Amino acid sequence: MKDLSLHILDLVENSLRAGASKVTIGVFEDTSSDTLQLLIKDNGKGMEEHVLKHVFDPFFTGQNKRKKIGLGLPLIKQLAEQCEGNVRLSSQKGKGTELIVTFKRSHIDLPPLGDIAETLVALIVANPEVEFEFVHNVDGVEWRFSSKELLEYLGVDSPEDLPAVLPAVKEWINFQEKSFREGGVNDEN
Amino acid sequence: MKIKSIEDLKRIKEEAQKNVALREGKAKYKVTVHMGTCGIAAGARQIMSAVLDEISRRNLKDVVVTQAGCIGLCDREPLISVENGSQKVLYGNLTPEKARQVVVSHLVNGQIVGEWVIHTE
Ligand code: FES
């Protein structure tokens, strides 16, 4: 994976497979502690303890022939450790799963965040029934949006209408990300 | 157009409402982009963007786009499938350019692009 936004896309797949109706994706950057944290939190069905123990094992495919958990978690763990960070995963049966990945922000091996807008748009279009909340915080300044609020605001209520608006939404997210990162003026939304 | 402000979004909202009014009936095609780990690493996200962009450019109103996980064909990623009623066509080894051509040929003109088909159901 060349950048963090692709890892995010891959990791959110686990939340979707767990039947989540809401997924929060957070990027928290902090200069004083020199950390970058990724948060992926869902309200899906959670994982059994015996599964939780093995999800970082790349060769674990779950017991009873169910679909494999994927390589997302082992890959992100490897990257976090390479960047002097760590991974925390907590899950409660029936309540959801929370993944927090911490990296040393200035680490030379830390890939860029990448095209976060493209990741969000891909998730939104493919899973219109799921609410995605995105939060990006740098040293206490943040911007956030919820896909549910945005689509309600845009008057989109059917999946067939999504392709027509999402390229524009992508531009909008890109612009918000860019002006936020450059510390420019932010739109109230 | 660069979407910068809330006003721009309002315009999109109006566009979207126009589109809602124009659309008739249910989706005719369902496009699924396979987004397992290998798929994503092989460029599935750009494929998704290319498909979306081409659909919005051509103003297609009867297509839904969705994602699915791994189907165990790593070496043929990125993959998409196009479903139309009972027919399902799986395309592999795509590039964003090829994906756009699939949209034009298959979704607009109803012509399957045989060259890139992995299998048909
Ligand atoms: S993601 Fe590799 S074969 Fe499915």
Automatic annotation (TrEMBL), chain A:
It catalyses: ATP + protein L-histidine = ADP + protein N-phospho-L-histidine. InterPro entries: HATPase_C_sf, HATPase_dom, His_kinase_dom, Sig_transdc_His_kin-like_C. Transmembrane segments: none annotated. Its EC number is 2.7.13.3. Residues 1-107 form the Histidine kinase domain. SUPFAM superfamilies: ATPase domain of HSP90 chaperone/DNA topoisomerase II/histidine kinase. This is histidine kinase. It comes from Thermatribacter velox. The lineage of its organism: Bacteria, Pseudomonadati, Atribacterota, Atribacteria, Atribacterales.
